[in-house]
Design brief:
heterodimer, A: mainly alpha, MetI-like fold, 2 domains, 14 helices, 69% helix, 0% strand, B: mainly alpha, two-stranded antiparallel ribbon, 71% helix, globular
């Protein structure tokens, strides 16, 4: 702007009043803030990893050592070899839950979402309204009756109360899948029906292969939620051989307060899978979308 | 498959429709059964239970409204749980949303390294509440923790945090903005949706950075703020995981020290699964549900005063 105003009676614009200079200042302030804040947000992670690599004597040293020297891996060994708290078993248990819940959720939700996306029937609108209404279902009210139900079935201290409901669909996943299925061209299915395909064939060879982006999103978000979930696991699992990483770590935190190094090592181990999945997933979403090109519309 | 012939006979159509109806209900059968067994029946059972006295071992006894009356008029812990929960919600929710909005605005302005900074701010939001609780008890350790260590540089003796009843809740409040990554991403999406022309028009009218933020960004972002506000309030009133992990490990008692972190959900958990007062805990659940509904409705009602929807015109 200021460059084109030369013909006007000259108003002296000093360099610090110029737009370019002010923009540069803005950028500097912006990036100083971004760097400072990201340090604040990342610092707790650094502190945790640092503590996990120090001897307990070094951990309780003030002022702290900012770089562990020597790097002390023993904490990780102790976190995994504590006989009262088999952390490797907790990881295995959590993966049992992950597989049981995610497979059930995907299979049941694909079926239900296909019904809502493609089939016409009396009562469909009613059931879809019910689906939307469950978003507002107050979890706190269901807690006690569900506990009593699973207690009556003898399922307490097993993984069944956590896994079985997942095989009956989950509203949010159904909704996401249905929205995605609606973007798949119907012509593909119509052509397949001409060739004699039944519903199973349509789901198996058309819907599922074309829906990998949304299936990936649901898988990744479910993985994170199950890994991090605490309340339900706390209620239903009560012997330490059944513990998951969440409850195991909470228990570890309560019992072994002296061994801070091992506690920090266990915490780091607990974070790793979620962080890895998070970074992989960023890529998987983009790839999935570019492969099918469907969500771009 | 007779559907290829163009004049379709009536009967064939109705048979096809019937077939499709059956198929539809087969497909959504898991959903219907799930709703019935894990939502509708439990919800009804919860309401009935809230009018009974039941310790699981003996048969439930109908006591009418007594659970509700006892909670509101006699239970000494009830006002404590409300005070703790509301103090937390009133401070932590605005703090968390303000930080989330600030981070989103910064990211929206940035041109280089956005991905890195976004990941840095979002990272704390994806980790488990248990790991975060373990980590923060260590960060807020009064002797070896970096927070009090930092305060000591200025000659300030930091508080005992999670073992001091006056500070335990504020330690939990301090954790809230750290996990604001999810809200930040929602704000960021909202900011991206604001029409650039509005800023250009404001700039031509001589509005500076702050004026543009107050008069363009905030009004255009009110629907997003509204959404985040409702979701955060509902979440804060049901806080459980962090307070459970920290209070049981550090203070040695659920909701400790001295009930200073006795969140409502901790108390419901305590009544139901430590005291096995299933009827009373159900009543407490319905009271919290009612409180959440009332607050949500109030926010919803107030929204016509401050939430601006584009395309909606005042008459």
């Amino acid at each position: 702007m200021s460059a084109t105003t030369t013909s006007l009676p000259s108003v002296q614009v000093r360099f610090y009043q110029s737009k370019r200079f002010q923009n540069a200042i803005r950028q500097i302030i912006l990036y100083v803030l971004l760097v400072l804040l990201s340090v604040v947000f990342i610092f707790p992670f650094y502190w945790m990893i640092l503590a996990s690599l120090k001897t307990n004597a070094q951990i309780f040293l003030w002022p702290p050592k900012w770089i562990p020297n020597p790097v002390y891996w023993e904490n990780y060994v102790r976190a995994f070899t504590n006989p009262q708290l088999p952390f490797a078993l907790f990881i295995k248990n959590t993966f049992i839950l992950e597989i049981g819940i995610i497979s059930g959720r995907l299979l049941s939700c694909i079926l239900v979402a296909y019904g809502f996306a493609r089939l016409e029937a009396p009562g469909k609108n009613f059931w879809f309204t019910v689906l939307l209404a469950t978003f507002m279902m107050p979890g706190i009210l269901l807690l006690i009756p569900k506990y009593i139900l699973f207690n009556k079935l003898g399922w307490i201290n097993t993984y069944l109360p956590l896994i079985v409901p997942a095989w009956f669909g989950e509203s949010y996943a159904i909704f996401l899948m249905r929205q995605f299925f609606l973007t798949i061209p119907r012509e593909l299915e119509e052509a397949a029906v001409m060739d004699g395909a039944n519903t199973y064939h349509i789901l198996r060879y058309i819907i599922v292969p074309l829906s990998t982006p949304v299936l990936a999103v649901i898988t990744v978000l479910s993985f994170k939620d199950i890994w991090n979930s605490f309340f339900e696991q706390l209620i239903y699992l009560n012997s330490s051989t059944k513990y998951t990483v969440s409850i195991g770590l909470a228990y570890f935190n309560g019992q072994f307060t002296v061994d801070t190094g091992a506690l920090m090592a266990a915490s780091v181990v607990m974070l790793i899978p979620v962080v890895i999945v998070f970074f992989i997933a960023q890529k998987a979403f983009v790839e999935g979308i570019s492969l099918t090109g469907l969500t771009g519309r | 498959m007779t559907a290829i012939s163009i004049p379709v006979p009536r009967k064939a159509v109705s048979r096809k429709a019937r077939h499709e109806t059956v198929l539809f209900y087969i497909c959504i059968a898991p959903f219907i059964l799930g709703i019935l067994f894990f939502d509708v029946i439990p919800l009804g059972a919860s309401l009935v239970l809230s009018f009974t006295h039941w310790d699981i071992l003996t048969a439930p006894r109908w006591i009418g409204l007594q659970n509700y009356i006892f909670a509101i008029t006699k239970d000494p812990n009830f006002p404590i749980t409300l005070r703790v929960t509301f103090t937390y919600a009133i401070v932590a929710v605005p703090l968390r949303l303000a930080v989330a909005l600030f981070l989103a605005v910064l990211l929206n302005e940035a041109t280089k390294g956005v991905g890195f900074f976004r990941t840095a701010f979002y990272m704390p939001a994806i980790i488990s509440a248990v790991a975060a609780a373990v980590l923060w008890t260590w960060l807020l350790n009064p002797v070896y923790g970096p927070v009090d260590g930092f305060l000591r540089l200025f000659g300030i003796q930091g508080p005992q945090w999670f073992t001091d009843p006056h500070f335990a809740l504020w330690g939990l409040v301090m954790m809230a903005p750290w996990g604001a990554g999810g809200e930040m991403l929602i704000f960021l999406a909202g900011l991206k949706g604001i029409d650039k022309q509005l800023y250009e028009a404001a700039e031509l009218d001589g509005a500076g950075t702050l004026k543009r933020f107050i008069n363009v960004t905030i009004p255009m972002l009110t629907p997003t703020i509204f959404f985040n506000l409702v979701m955060s309030i509902i979440g804060a009133l049901q806080s459980f995981d962090t307070a459970y992990v920290i209070s049981t490990a550090r203070a040695g008692t659920l909701g400790g020290p001295a009930n200073s972190t006795l969140f409502y959900m901790l108390y419901v958990y305590n009544r139901a699964f430590a005291g096995f007062s299933m009827g009373y805990a159900s009543a407490l659940g319905w009271i919290l549900f009612a409180v959440i509904m009332v607050i949500t409705l109030l926010v919803l009602r107030s929204s016509s005063l401050w939430v601006f929807y584009e395309g909606e015109r005042k008459r």
